[in-house]
Specification:
The chain is an alpha/beta fold and 207 residues long. The protein contains eight helices and seven strands. This is Hydroxyphenylpyruvate reductase.
């Protein structure tokens, strides 16, 4: 996006096509034999996907809290000004923010320690959001209760030690792989191309 902006090339996104399916995608695993209902859910990043997760979790009577760059005025969810405070006060921590220099390793040793041996870390954002070496070590030592991951720090490489852990679910970031979502993506691409060649604003501009 930075190169596009510097070169004055328009860039677009498909923000809403994946929102529904990404937050719904849960694999069949012993990790999810824990009762989800009533669990305290903390969300890092309360954007489109974060909000979608929060709304569904509410249906299971889960108290919702979140961390974001600033407190959201249009929500009643409990806000924590630091990720450590959020992790201390939740049982399931979901990473759903954008990757920036500031959010790289936003889940570090201190956050993992705060989440604790009964806590579950879910990363559906980007691999570098999590200090992967520290996470693997915590899972092996029992300092972290479990993890659900569909992104990894050095993709396509996945730490070998994760494959043998029964409290870990691994996926290759495929939650948007439905016919409906891919059709919506294609529609947006076509719509953006038509808008570009007609000298109209893009439907989903990024830069």
């Amino acid at each position: 996006m930075k190169l596009c902006s510097e070169s004055k090339v328009q860039g677009s996104d498909e923000p809403d096509t994946t929102r529904l399916h990404v937050h719904q995608h849960l694999p069949d695993s012993s990790l999810f034999l824990l009762q989800f209902s009533g669990k305290r859910v903390g969300i890092i990043g309360l954007g489109r996907i974060g909000l979608a997760i929060a709304k569904r979790a509410e249906a299971f009577d889960c108290p919702i809290s979140y961390y974001a760059r600033s407190e959201k005025a249009n929500t009643n969810y409990n806000y924590y000004p630091t990720v450590v405070e959020l992790a201390t006060n939740c049982e399931i921590l979901v990473v759903a923010c954008a990757l920036t220099p500031e959010t790289r390793y936003i889940v570090n040793r201190e956050v993992i320690y705060a989440l604790g041996p009964k806590g579950i870390l879910i990363n559906i954002g980007r691999g570098p959001h999590v200090d992967e070496k520290e996470m693997v070590s915590a899972l092996l030592d029992g300092r972290l209760g479990g993890a659900g991951l569909d992104v990894f720090e050095n993709e396509p490489e996945v730490p070998d030690k994760l494959f043998g852990l029964e409290n870990v679910v691994l996926l290759p970031h495929v939650a948007s792989g439905t016919e409906e979502t891919r059709e919506s993506m294609a529609d947006i691409v076509i719509g953006n191309l038509e808008a570009h060649f007609q000298n109209k604003p893009l439907l989903t501009p990024v830069v």
